Amino acid sequence: MRYEVPFVPDPAYAALLAARAASLSAVYFRLGPDIPDARLPGAGDAAPQELAAGLAALPEVPRLGLLNAAFHAPETLSGDGLRDLLLLLEGYLAAGAITGIVYADHYLLTALSDASPEVAGALVAVPSINFRLDRFERLAAVLEAVADTRFRFPDAVILDRDINRDTARLGELADRARRAFPGLRLGLMANEGCLYACPFKTAHDAHIALTRLAACRLGPDMHRDLGCLRTFYAHPGRMLASPFIRPEDARRLEGLVDFLKICGRTRPAADLTAIVAAYLDGAFHGNLAWLLDTQEILSGRLDLPNDALPADFFARTDGCGHHCRACGSCAELAGRIVREREMGLPRLGEAGERG
User: Fold this and answer.
1) Residue 220 has pLDDT above 60, yes or no
2) Is the pTM here over 0.85, yes or no?
3) Collapsing DSSP states into helix, strand and coil, what is residue 101?
4) What is the pLDDT of residues 132-156, one digit of tens each?
5) Measured between alpha carbons, how far is 305 from 264 in angstroms, rounded to an integer?
6) How far is residue 163's CA from residue 134's CA, in Å, rounded to a whole number?
7) Are 18 and 58 in contact (CB under 8 A)?
8) Is the pLDDT of residue 349 over 50?
9) What is the number of other CB atoms lying within 10 angstroms of the CB of residue 329?
10) Of 300, 247, 303, 251, which Cα lies nearest the Cα of 275?
11) The pLDDT value given to residue 348
């Protein structure tokens, strides 16, 4: 299995990527500290010059800049805002550091295409996973919309997270997609830790986009008090019902998809190195919550030992109907293996443990 992974300009992480470049499907990165994407701003976001220098060391790997905020300010669609964004993309192109963008706002994609056919024609436009491409008709409509612009047609897309562990449905979609779009590579998100069919997602993505437009602040308190973290803590079984793919189970998707995407670009570089290495090696021994996007916030409170999951966990949950109250299987398993961690300062020597 190949992997699409975040890029951060950290020496140890960059060395891992360089050594395992043959296993990489693509790398993706935030275009700059002031460029909106689908994550909250981070204090340690690298400058474009630093990113471009590091990305140039991966010339054979597709390099995707993130423009995947749910929506952008109206002033970004014209005038100085659009000009500044195009200048940034031109700089990355001149440095040989970018081959495409990941987008979620089709208004912005159209505006960029109209304003600079030259820039658009040099870049692949990859639909964000947040287009929720869970059936062929939706996939075809989104790809047709890209074809209406001057951007290059995508050679890869990531399908919706909710079909990660539904191989029958996934196989049907993959077969139709490959027949309709020969050469299109298909991927899934690997360390996905959101609630299945998350009821908070639309508002969550909108709140992230709003942080760039107004005095709106989205933080863990909102998730803890009203959202997904509250649900996970109250119902640990739903941590297991989340559509993640463990490193040990990646091989089960060989032949169905071409690559898996690893999340975590806002986490410390040492953590990201360990997460990517776990997937490249096909094994993880630690707190599964720590490995997963979103759930990692709970890993200081809840211990979900990956090695305690049954070897046939993927097969047991493949095609699950997600009627959790009627089934209770994940809740029963979580009741046996999930433990609340003792609160307090770590003992000497424990601070560097993974999960």
Assistant:
1) no
2) yes
3) strand
4) 999 999 999 999 999 999 999 999 9
5) 20
6) 7
7) yes
8) no
9) 14
10) 247
11) 43
CA–CA separation, 185 and 190 (whole Å): 16
Phi first, then psi: what are they for 351, rounded to 5°? -60, -30
Secondary structure in 3-state letters for 222-237: HHHHHCHHHHHHHCCH
Task: For tokens 């030259």, name the residue.
Answer: 118
134-138, 164-168, 232-236, 334-338: range with lowest mean pLDDT: 232-236
Is residue 42 very low, low, confident or very high in pLDDT (cuts 50, 70, 90)?
low
Q: Is the separation of the CB atoms in 341 and 300 below 8 Å? A: yes
The rounded distance, in Å, linking the Cα atoms of 203 and 118 is 35
Span 281-297, mean pLDDT?
95
Please report the pLDDT score of residue 195 as a whole number: 87
Place of tokens 């000009």: 83
Assigned superfamily of 2-340: Aldolase class I (3.20.20.70)
**CA neighbor of 108 nearest in space, from 31, 161, 160:** 31
Name which of 7-21, 71-85, 203-217, 263-277 the model is least confident about: 203-217
Q: Which two tokens stand for residue 265?
A: 């670009």
Whether residue 75 is predicted with pLDDT greater than 90 in this model: the reply is no
Residue 65 has φ and ψ, to the nearest 5°, of: -85, 140
DSSP state for residue 74 in the 8-state scheme? G
Q: How far is CA 135 from CA 159, 192, 323, in A?
A: 9, 19, 21
H or E element at residue 79: helix 79-94
Q: Is 144 exposed, middle or buried (0-12, 13-18, 19+ CB in 10 A)?
A: exposed
Query: What secondary structure letter does DSSP report for 73?
Result: -
Handedness of CA 115, 117, 122, 128 (dihedral sign): positive
Under the phi-then-psi rule, with left for phi > 0, alpha for psi from -120 to 50, and beta for the rest, what region is 238? alpha
The position carrying tokens 């994550």 is 39
Q: What percent of the chain has pLDDT over 70?
A: 93
Q: Cα(217)–Cα(208) distance, rounded to whole angstroms?
A: 8
Contact predicate 1/254, CB 8 Å: yes
